[in-house]
Amino acid sequence: MNRNLGSHHAAERVSNRRFANAMISPTVIIMLVMTAYPLIFTLIYGFTDLNLMKRNNVHFIGIDNYAKLLKNRYFLQSVFNTIKFTLFSVIFEVFLGFVLAVYVNSLKRFQKAMRLLILLPYLMPAVTVALSWRMMLSPNYGIVNQVFEALHLPVYNWFADIKTAFPMLVIIDVWQNTPFVFLLLYAALQSVPQSQYEAAKIDGANTMQQIIYVTIPNIAGNLALCALMRTIDTFRLFEKVNLLTGGGPANSTSTITQYLYNFGIKSFKFGFGSAGAVLMTIIVLILSSFYIKRTIK
């Protein structure tokens, strides 16, 4: 009797396992097709001289593409620009997102309205954001320069001036993506025990001390997660740079993605572009490892 019952349970477990495998197999197949397949071929193409204009004449060239990239001063400048842009953007976005989250969480009224207003920039597509800012900062009819003229301040060709192009890209990215950080941190603040704030108040802690000794320790993991996610996303910045500056002036705003687009995709040199994409992925993994280690601890 027990043997028959055990056999029945074993058969049921096998049946359940087969059913579960059948249910998840479509997702696994889609993930393999959409992720593994492009990744494998990107790695392979990086070692070839693949050019879509000469698809029938592809040769294995080893690490030549990587050597060319690492010796190219424009690519190295693009790497430096990307890292600098990522650092500035992530620092400002995490800081401002945290400040906004703490402020909105402390409001007694109009929290819903404030959340909606803050989230509006993040809901807009990147292309729409870039075009809107290009109109506002136009040297000919932009509202920003008109305000500057009315105040008798100097006006600029914001995206053509080497002194202003890079800072403006940082400002635009921070304006659009700070709401994302705000949303994650605001949600994290809901789980902070109010009893800890009450205990801090009894001990005589002021508002700043409560933030430093209660709020930040409770959401430290969320802060690290926001920094990680924004680092990965910011490193892939393309739309704003391509629409607003194209990498100029004088390569001062060129990012890795913009460089690969200019010298790889547009010229159909997919082998060269694939090598650049692999290098960009390695750099992102190196930068992200710091956040991952911090989160695991």
Question: How would you describe what is shown here?
Answer:
By secondary structure, the chain is mostly helical. The chain folds into 2 domains: 31 residues; 233 residues, MetI-like (MetI-like fold, Orthogonal Bundle). The protein is built from 13 helices and no strands. Helix 4 crosses helix 7. It starts with a helix and ends with a helix. The model has no long low-confidence stretch (mean pLDDT 85).
Task: Describe what is shown at a glance.
The protein is mainly α and 297 residues long.
The CATH topology of the largest domain turns out to be: MetI-like fold
Give the H and E element order.
HHHHHHHHHHHHH
Helix content range? over 70%
- Individual helix count: 13
Number of strands: 0
Radius of gyration: 25 Å
Report the structural category: mainly alpha
What's the oligomerization state?
single chain
Sheet with the most strands, sense and barrel status: none
Mean pLDDT metric? 85
Detail the poorly predicted runs.
none
Could you tell me the strand content as a percent range? under 5%
CATH architecture classification of the largest domain: Orthogonal Bundle
